[in-house]
Amino acid sequence: MENRKTMLIVDDMEINRAILMQFFQDEFHIIEAENGREALDFIKSQPIDIILLDLMMPVMTGMEVLEWLLSNPRYGDIPVIVTTSADDVNSEVMAMERGAADYLTKPYNPSIVSCRVQNVLGRRENEISKLRQAAQDKKISAMQQILDIDQMTGLLTQKAFLQQAADKISGNPETRYCFVYLNIASFKLINELFNMETGDTILKTAASYFNTIVGKRGLASHLTADSFAILLPEDMLDMDLLIQGLDAMMHSLTIYRTVAFFAGVYQIDNIYLTTSQMLDRAHMAMTSVKNSHARRFAFYDDALRTKLMDEQIIAREMEPALNNGQFFVKYQPIYKIDTEARTMAPIAAEALLRWQHPEQGIISPDRFIPVFEKNGFINRVDRFAWEQACHFLSRQRDWGLDIQPISINISHMNFYDMSFVDYLLRLLRKYDLQPWMLWLELTEKSYNHAPEQLTKILRRLNSCGFSVILDDFGSSFSSLGILRDLTIDMLKVDVRRLYAHGNHDRVDIILQAIIDMAKKLNMQVIAEGVETPVQAELLQTMGCHTMQGFHYSRPLNSDAYIELLSSLR
What we know:
The protein is α/β, with parallel strands linked by helices and about 575 residues long. About 50% of the residues lie in helices and about 20% in strands. The chain is globular. The chain starts with a strand and ends with a helix.
C-alpha cells in the first residue's frame, strides 16, 4: 500500500470527484482539490504521479493550470488527463495543445477511464525508462558528447534543434520566428532507383543549402531520413525563394528523376506551445500539400486548424461508425442508350459508399474519404462496400433477375496490398458470383502512387476476368501514360467537372477526341455526371451511348434498384 502512486483529482463538483475516487481508491493514494489554485498548492508541496483535471472551475480554471505547468519545467512531466463534456471538442484540442496527455468525457465510462489512466501512466513510465537508458548510454561512451550533430549532414539532431530553438525563441522575445518542416517526396523510391550514395548526396546538398539559408540568426536540423526543419526569423523567410533555390540545388545534381521538397510553415503565434508542438504544426501544414501538383508549401492557420480538427473528429468516430452500421451503399444506375431504337436501360450500377451519422446526418464522401485514405481506414470501408455489392448481386439472382454488374471503387491504397485480389476472389466464391459481375473502378492516383504494384495487380485482374474502369479520366497528367502502359477496359469521363469552368466549345473538342481515341483502343466510354437532356443528346451525337448521372437516375438504395430491375422484366 505504501508504494501506491498519488493521484490528484481536481474538480469543483464534489459528485464528480467522488465518482473518480470510487474508480481509483484501491489503486492510488487520492488527493482532492476544488479548484486550480488549491491544486497548485498540492503540486508544489508533494510528489504527484498523475492529475485528473476539470477544465471549467472557479478561482483558477483547468486551462490556466495547464499553462502554469507548461511554464514551470519542474512540474512539466506530471501527466495530466483533462475532463470535459462530450461535445466540447474545441476545449479538448486547446488542452492537448497545452500539454494534456489525454482527455475524458462526461459522463464517465469506468472501463474507458481506467484504460486511459493506465495508458498515460504506461507512456510516462516508458519515457522515464528511455531517459534512464539514455543516461546510462552516456556513461558508456564519450562519443555521446557529439550527439547534438547529425553525422551525415552536419546539421542539428532533432533533440538539439528543439532545445536550441526554445532557447533562441525565449532569448529573443522581440523577434517573431517561424518553423519550417521540409520533406523530400518519394525519397525511398529514389534510394531504390539509384543507390544509397545518391540519396546521401541529396541530403548533404540540401543540408548545405539550409545551413546557408539560416546563417547565424536561425537553426537547421536533419530530422529523419527524408525530413528537415529550420527555424528562421519571420523577416528572413521567403518561401517562394527558398523553394526555388532548393530546386536549383537539386537540379545541379543532374539526377534524371525530379527531387521535390514540400514544406509547411508555422508562424509562432502561441508561446505557450512547446517547440515540439510548434514543429508538429509545421509538419501538419506540410502534409496538407505533400505530393500536390498545385502547391509546394502551406502555412498553418485557423482554416487548416479547423480542417485538422474535423479530420480528428472523423478519425475518432470512423471505427464506431463501421461497427454500428452507420455506413451503407447506394447504387447509381449506368444506362445504355440505343439511339436507333430510342430506348434506354440500365446495364450496371456503381456502388457508392455513404455515411449516415446519428447526429450529423449524411456525411459527404468528400469529407471522409480523404481522411480514410490518409490514415489507412479506406481499406476497411472499401472491403465493406465490396461485400455489400456482392450481397446485392446475390439478391438479384435470388429475385430471378438477369444479373447486372456492379461497379466498385478501388482506392489507390489497396494496390499496396498484393493480397487484395485474393480477397475479391474469396468474396466471389462466398456469394457464388463470377468476376464479370464486378467492374473495378480505379483512379489515376493509383498509377501515380504505385505504378509498379498497379501494373502487376492489373495483369492478375485481367487474367481473372475482371473488367477495369479508369475513373475520372483526364484529371491528371498521367492519363495517356496509363493507357499506354496498362490494360484498361473502360474510361469514365466526368462531364459535370469538364463543363464546370466554361469554354464549352473546347470541352466539346476534348470529349470528342477522348471518345474517338477510346473506340480505336477498343475501350468503352462511360460519361458520368450527365445532368441535362442537352448534355445527353450531345454525347450521343459524339458516339457515347453509356451514361450515368442525375438526368437518368440519382443513387438508389438496394430495394429501389431491385424494384427498377424488376420493372424491366
